[in-house]
Amino acid sequence: MTTGSAPIRVLGVGAGYFSQFQYAAWQADPRVELVGVVDTDEAKAQVTAQQYDAGAHFTDMDTALSTCTPDLVDIITPPPAHLGLIERTMEQRIPTICQKPLCGGLDGARVAADLAARADTFLVVHENFRFQPWYRKAKAMMDEGRLGDIYQVTFRLRPGDGQGPNAYLDRQPYFQKMERLLIYETGLHFIDTFRYLLGEPDTIWADLRRLNPAIAAEDAGLLVFGYEDGKRALFDGNRLADHAAEDQRCTMGEALIEGSQGTLELFGSGQLFFRRHGDTQAQEVDMPDWPKTFGGGCVAALQAHVIDHMISDAPLENEVRDYIWNLEWMEAAYASHHTGRRLDLASWREGQAT
User: Which of 196, 204, 219 is nearest to 317 (CA)?
Assistant: First the structure.
């Protein structure tokens, strides 16, 4: 798909906390014209439109679509609104990006995927952690064979924002009341990142717990992914504990990738260090400068990736039909926790279908 030399007209839907990162990225991309902002709260829509130089603001999606005639719609709302908005964009065959967790879960996401398939129009999920610069660099080093045969990828989530009765209230207060938290809201990022780095796992085992009594759902736990060739991926999440970083939200924790030829370590600063097998000292990995904003500029990187596809038909990641795998693994993780068993995804999926 190409749009010629004219800027790609983007309509944003939603003006909540996280939308600031997406609107700032659209505003900074010279290939894009931000033509409007939609939110049911008119004051929020107006302020956001003014802040990011959008052409107009709206409280009604249908009016926005007919007035702005966008080339691309970016849905940045809470999950309950996703499916109705996707129905509108797919009816008009407008390419769409939608925030995660897509449509609140697997059932809604499957409906959204069917809508996109029938419209023959792309629907991309805004899953941005795989676009963080340290994971792109790690993937490149793995593909080059620098680490040899991969044994295990481990991520220790330690944002330190989950302690006490005021946990999350300053940024995302709805976290306190969610029936699912750690895996649904945060662990899902790493399910996708593990798939990006290692490919499709075969099995999952989960052990989840709630440490802060002020919230409703799990805020700590372990996920172990098994691979047919013996690799393992470990997600060790604890939202109450922190890690050694000036900005706890830069990487949100620390990672270790272990292979036969060496070990790659990610620190909370976003720095990568590589130690060859048998050596005692690690060397810092050279990386391009990355923006000192959320996730090393991963929001802008994902959005630029979509624009690249629209302009030059570059390969597209995170399309809805692929993203559904993440949601299946998420549901399998909760099922594993509740049953206390390691689950094979293929068998679990067959059981869900009967």
Answer: 196
Tell me the domains of the chain and their CATH numbers. 8-127+300-317 (3.40.50.720), 130-287 (3.30.360.10)
> pTM to 2 decimals?
0.94
pLDDT digit string (tens) for 45-66? 999 999 999 999 999 999 999 9
pLDDT interval class at 284 (50, 70, 90): very high
Given phi > 0 = left and psi -120 to 50 = alpha, else beta, which region is 27?
alpha
- How confident is the model at residue 218, as a pLDDT? 98
Sign of the Cα torsion 168, 169, 172, 178 reads positive
CB 44 within 8 A of CB 14: no
Cα separation, 10 vs 8, in Å, equals 6
* Calpha distance 163→240 (Å, rounded): 5
Who contacts 334 (Cβ-Cβ below 8 Å, separation ≥6)?
180, 183, 206, 208
Of 71, 69, 41, 72, the residue nearest 57 (C-alpha): 41
Alpha-carbon span 144 to 295, nearest angstrom: 24
Residue 247 CB neighbours (<10 A): 12
CA atoms within 13 A on the CB side of 189: 22
Residue ranges of the alpha helices (H) in the chain? 19-28, 42-51, 61-68, 82-91, 106-119, 133-143, 188-198, 298-312, 320-339, 345-353
CB 88 within 8 A of CB 112: no
